Amino acid sequence: MFKKPSLTDDIRAFVERTVETLFDGRIRLTRGTGQPNINPMWAKTKDIEFLHYNIKTMGYQLARKLASELPVRTGLTPTHVGLDSKASTQADLETDWAAYWAGRLRIPIFYHRKLWEFVYVLQALHEHGMIAPGRRGLGFGCGEEPIPSLLASEGVDVLVTDLPPDNEAAKVWSKTHEYAATIEKAYRPELVSREAFERHISLRFVDMNAIPDDLSDFDFTWSICALEHLGSLKHGLDFIETALRPLKPGGLAVHTTEFNFMNDQETLDNWVTVLYQRRHFEDLAARLTAQGHKVRPLNFDIGKAPMDQFIDIPPYVNDWPAILTQCWTDGAPHMKLSIDGFASTCFGLIIEKAA
To answer: What structural domains and CATH numbers belong to the chain?
Structure first.
């Protein structure tokens, strides 16, 4: 039954509107006359946006300088390092294994968590023998990732999946080039021939909250920063468990997601992006282990190098004024960032299905 607003509700709404109007009026840069809107609140807030850009651009410049000083490495081969389930770090991106996979992807090493996710997934797949002709892989929420093309070049059969086109979220992701509306979105000509791509890659629209039962007999599955966008912490954790179902016994699952590493009391839930805490990963690992699955050891070291200590803040590149996007972005590299006031970085999980 419809509840009629009470007088208290009306008063509260009026007060909130009044306060908002007064606040907005105080922080405006100018008055109606075009003169500075001089008042104590204006004095405290007028330069905050510039402070944000100062912090951000200095962090980006440091990242580019550090990357430019890395040695040029040639003749690298894939190695086995015993990769853990872990947080992303600057040190990871300075390893030979990261340089090898970045080279295979034809991406120069730079300190960005997205590159870390790519090389982390590939290293995990390599260490478990999954990058080989005849293997079958299933990617969730792939968007325009380069990984399917690289796998196809190695003779791996890959089913690329993404949201159905009529899903509202798909419209949002397509604006940031993170949605595979067609199979062409997954094709990287610099990584694989057209013939090999068409032979090994297929596309299917799949809701990660409702994985179809007919998906089965895969050697491995993976997802990159997708499960935190499923609507809630529970939805994401349920996905990790459900995504084991399409695997063969002994198959491998590799997932990356957001890690709220500073705040153990509060986190984001029931939102467009949710943030997992240490306890979520520990509880999940214990639950999966009890079911007979194997979870690579959890490593919560967030690093201590310069880029590990740089927590990027809004506004992010997609929200920058056009002139700044044209002149200042250059990749906007960061390993950590603020998401709605919480410091977050990437965390990778490596799970072997019970045999």
So the answer is: 83-352 (3.40.50.150)
